[in-house]
Amino acid sequence: MSAYTSFPIILSAPSGGGKTTIAKALLARRSDLGYSVSCTTRAPRPSEVHGRDYYFMTRAEFLAEREQNAFAESAVVHGNLYGTLRREVERVMAEGKHVVMDIDVQGAQQFIRAFAQSVTIFVLPPSADVLLERLRGRQTESPAQLAARLQSALQELQQVDEYEYVVVNDDLERAVASVGSIIDAEIVSRERVKNLRQQVGSLIQRLEQEIENTIP
User: Fold this and answer.
1) What is this structure's pTM?
2) Buried b (16+ CB within 10 A) or exposed e, 122-151
3) Which pairs count as long-range contacts for 181-190, CB under 8 Å and 24+ apart, including other chains?
4) Which of 45, 59, 73, 164 would bridge 107 by S-S if both were Cys, CB 3.0 to 4.6 A apart?
């Protein structure tokens, strides 16, 4: 069992579904949340910074970390390797913060096996038209790359029932508020369970003492 009272929050969505935007908004507004920076072998985009957006690795570096079982999850996405380091997640939780993760369905399934206390949230676009518009919004992709992204979106949508919560991102502020409410409810629920367990433990200990004292 984990020694941490904090827990990871997994946000998944089809590409363009808004999970990264929601994650960034929550991190900007809440001091009880932290972000685990993921690793990737793809080249950084112009605005991206190593150590802030991703840890950009060579393929050899990534495979060496994976060989050491350093990743809580890793996957091949559009020909590039992506992964989340266990030590990054543990570092954030050791600070007493809940870890916000924006990872795809494939990665989420692995991650939950490493961190069973995770809360899973699937972010849905408001309509198929909006999803297609977002997927086609990047003008840098070839038709083959776009086709691969569409296929990935289809496969991810087919896994929505595996998630504990679903939030529709038809309005960003409302979606951020909904995810925030889910996190707050989970904090309260887990604190209540922890207190109940402590109360039950105290009762058991007292009864055991009483039984021991009454046995001749």
Assistant:
1) 0.79
2) bbbbeeeebbeebbeeeeeeeeeeeebbbe
3) 182/9, 182/119, 182/121, 183/9, 183/26, 183/30, 183/33, 183/98, 183/119, 186/7, 186/119, 187/98, 190/5, 190/7
4) 73
What's 17's domain CATH number? 3.40.50.300
State how many domains the chain has: 1
CA dist 96 → 8, 25, 91, 143, 152 (Å): 11, 20, 9, 45, 34
Q: What is the mean pLDDT of residues 107-117?
A: 93
Distance from C-alpha of 172 to C-alpha of 149, rounded to nearest angstrom? 23
**Residue 125 token pair:** 């676009």
Q: What single-letter amino acid sits at 156? A: E
Q: Which domain holds residue 125?
A: 8-190
C-beta of residue 18 within 8 angstroms of C-beta of residue 25: no
